[in-house]
Amino acid sequence: MQADGSIAAVSGDHAVNLGQFSPAAIDRAADLATGLPLASMSGRSALAKQVLALAQRLARHRLLDYRLFSPREQRDLVIIEPQIADYWPRPVKLSNGDTVVLSRFAYLRRRGNEMVLESPRAGALFRIGDPAIAAMLAALSRPQQIGKLRRQMPALPLDLLGLLLDSALLLKLGAKDADGLRVNEGDGDLVLWDFHDFVFHTRSTEGRHGDPVGGAYAYAGVTPPLPAVRPRWPGKAIPLGSLAPAPTSPFAALLHARHSTRDFDDRHPITLTELARFLGTSARVMSEWTSGADAGGGHAASYSSRPYPAAGSAYELELYLTVSNCEGLARGFYHYDAGGHALVAIDASAQQIQALAMAATFAMDASGPPQILITIAARFGRISRKYSSIAYSLILKDVGSLIQTFYLTATDMGLGGCAIGTSNIDLFAAMTGLDFHVEGPVGQFALGRARKAEA
Q1: How many helices (H) and strands (E) does the chain have?
Q2: What pTM was computed for the model?
């Protein structure tokens, strides 16, 4: 209870205000500690509606688990842990004639002393508490008709299959999808994703899992830090200093001057003219051309050249700018058209823009938001169509090349910049309307005019 009569959910030093509710609703919601049947919230009474509203607010912050409980055995068969905000279990109805199969992105692994079923497409993971369910999942590696499966497993929980289908851990196959293999899963953009790349993308960003991200120092008490400079290998060393004296070229000075800037001078923001020069120097399309048919499908492919290197000249990276403070440019969310060297406004809400900027502020441990936050997104199909199993690795290498180019350009212009290691793929999807597996963030860079004390 809070002083104003509202209630809050508290975990460690983090609190979420849930609003005000009647004493009866708060008393009923106390059963959430052990388990409150979803059916009890579906009534039309004022009490049921209040309890449902409270539960949904908790769900919005991933503060609820969902238990599939067996009264006969008095144990949990499965516990569902939401991985995205607003997850709510909505089992899909299945009939005996339906055929289902596991998604190729689904995987069962050990976590501590539990087995969990996960997928980068799913909004929740499933903790498996019954070995018979694990055996059923193994059987679903091949397409299975529900009626036949029920005859083989009389105690089969249909609700569980419906929940797995709702989370895209299972696929329901049509008459033309009898094999259930790669080309039958979802849209054509999913065909281009290899399993390990898709898992890596969703687990190394924010938005689609509940694990800590960033400098968590999870095992600081278990293993000591490695030294900053690697100890020298044994054997004779060949000194190089006398062979090549310290370089004096402008480029060498630029490399040595490069550093990260986390706090910006909002009384003297970056100008639109400076931003145009920065983008033109570092990311503008310099030339375009079309090649003949590619090796796989007989299609002609188009290519471009830009100031930074890219794997196979794919140039799959796109720039989206969250503008908080730029002289001559309105606050908002923009896409950089590298071919036309222009900014195009995208209709994102003020709340979304603030959420993106504040997440970057937190990630940098800065005193305020960056004047301009550049989100680097990838058009995944642009590179995975050719490189398959190494596609995501190549994307991250390209991001590294682009970020170094950003750093050097900012330094040369007397601006400040800072690479940011996290991004929220679900927030970006909401702001752009793009599916997270089609085009999504793979890096971020803060840009602006550094505070004079830091400079």
Answers
A1: 13, 20
A2: 0.90
Q: How many residues does the chain have?
A: 455
Alpha-carbon distance of 334 to 342, in angstroms, equals: 10
Number of Cβ within 10 Å of residue 17's Cβ equals: 12
Q: Is 276 exposed, middle or buried (0-12, 13-18, 19+ CB in 10 A)?
A: middle
Q: 3-state secondary structure string, 418-432?
A: EEECCCEHHHHHHHH
* Cα–Cα separations (whole angstroms), residue 447 to 87, 275, 348: 35, 9, 20
- Give me the residue label for tokens 């996960």: 118
Q: Nearest to residue 374, comparing CAs of 410, 339, 419?
A: 419
Q: Which of 426, 421, 425, 415 is nearest to 444 (CA)?
A: 421
CB atoms within 10 A of CB 339: 11
Give the pLDDT confidence of 59-109 residue by residue, as tens digits.
Answer: 988 899 999 988 888 889 999 999 998 899 999 999 999 999 999 999 999
With beta carbons less than 8 A apart as the criterion, state whether 109 and 115 touch: yes
The SS3 call for residue 376 is strand
pLDDT tens readout for residues 127-175: 999 999 999 999 999 999 999 999 988 888 889 999 999 999 999 998 7
The Cα 99–Cα 198 span in angstroms is 25
Contact of 319 with 331, CB cutoff 8 Å = no
CB neighbourhood size of 326 (10 A): 20
Angle at which helix 250-257 crosses helix 391-412, to 10 degrees, equals 110
Q: Tell me how far the alpha carbon of residue 29 is from its chain's centroid.
A: 32
d(CA 195, CA 120): 9
